[in-house]
User: Fold this.
Amino acid sequence: MSPRFAVGDRVLVREAWPPGHLRTPAYIRGKRGVVCQHVGDFGNPETLAYGGDGRPQQPLYRVHFPQASVWPDYRGSAADSLEIEIYQHWLDPDQRWLDSEKGTT
Assistant:
């Protein structure tokens, strides 16, 4: 599977709650971030955990989130941030940001 996102792309983490083994933390679902690295392509851990072959391999990204956007009551520095590795199938383009860039919001 080819990478869908490039460094600098703004993404939205899917807010889904499927049963089973998930590698995407619950606290980051529904949050917006920026891709800062394409780490590589790897077997899908959500199928590997159940004895599957992990195919097709999924692009894995490191995504940057400002702490205040993850934790609404965060009182630390505005520069504090969090980076999380997230597989491509958990990410969508941040349509709200794309619309604002086009002036359609």
Summary: The longest strand covers residues 32-42.
